[in-house]
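Example 3.2
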Amino acid sequence: WPDGTTAVAGRIYAVGGYSGSPLTANAEYDPAADAWTNKAALPAANLAHAAVAYGGAVTLIGGENLGGVLATVRRYDPAADSWSSLASLPAARTGLPAAVVGDRAFAVGGQAPPYVSSNTEYSFLTGAWTARTPLPFVNHAMGPAVLGSRAYFIGGYDGAFLSSVAVYDAGAGTWSSGAAVPLASNYASVGVIGRK
């Protein structure tokens, strides 16, 4: 099971995950020093959550632990090495990806269970969640990436592994399809370099 991994101010943060049981671990990687440092642990174990970076902080959305599926949203401030709570998801979800476009995070798909097509927008400016145009199909465990005003959700699982590429235009609030990836998979790690 994956942890939540994202980068803030030149450091990489790997938070939560699973190693025989759900984890509270929060590890910071410094590429310049090629070294890991343990940071303030999550207040509660979590896995299969979304992790995004915004405003010099890490935000974790949803996920699950031994208590069940979570609606929890937490913010980690690396400068203070501390956690705080943000407004919870409108409904608990696990295996959901999220992508930041401007001052908004879009949490898409996942499972409650069952698998869902939900698309909920979190405003970092107002601290509120808003329902947006759902995915055209149910999906979870997609790999997210952002180019400009568009968020790409790649692969996933709906009972079978998927090769789909769902493209959300955050400005227009509409979905389109990209060319399918060559190999169907879920929990793909996706990154952007330049415009690719």
